[in-house]
Amino acid sequence: MSKEQTTAQLQVELDEIIMWFEQGSIDLDDAVTKYKRGTDIIAELEKRLKSAENTITKLAKL
């Protein structure tokens, strides 16, 4: 990721990867690359979700 993507952009990219896998006939090399990218996106989304949860928890304590 050279330019940081928004959470919405990451979700769209992940959805596109999922749809690609659901299409059926896939190239193994492409599948490995897309799977790796998908796991990277999931990790980033989970990190952002945890950060948002922490912020909400802090705000709720005010």
Kindly describe this structure.
This protein has 62 residues and is mainly alpha-helical. The protein has a domain at 31-62. It has helices at 7-22, 28-60. The radius of gyration is 15 Å and the shape is elongated. 0% of the residues are buried.
Please describe the biggest sheet, giving its number of strands, its sense, and whether it closes into a barrel. none
Stretches with pLDDT under 50, minimum 5 residues: none
Oligomer: single chain
Give the integer mean of the pLDDT values: 94
Proportion of beta-strand residues: under 5%
Q: Over the alpha carbons, how many angstroms does the gyration radius reach?
A: 15 Å
Counting DSSP H or I runs of 4 or more residues, the number of helices is 2
Number of strands: 0
> In which range does the helix fraction lie?
over 70%
Keywords:
single chain; 62 residues; mainly alpha; 2 helices; elongated
Topology:
Layout: H1 7-22, H2 28-60
Helix pairs in contact: 1-2
Task: Put the structure in a nutshell.
The chain has 62 residues and is mainly alpha-helical. It has two helices and no strands.
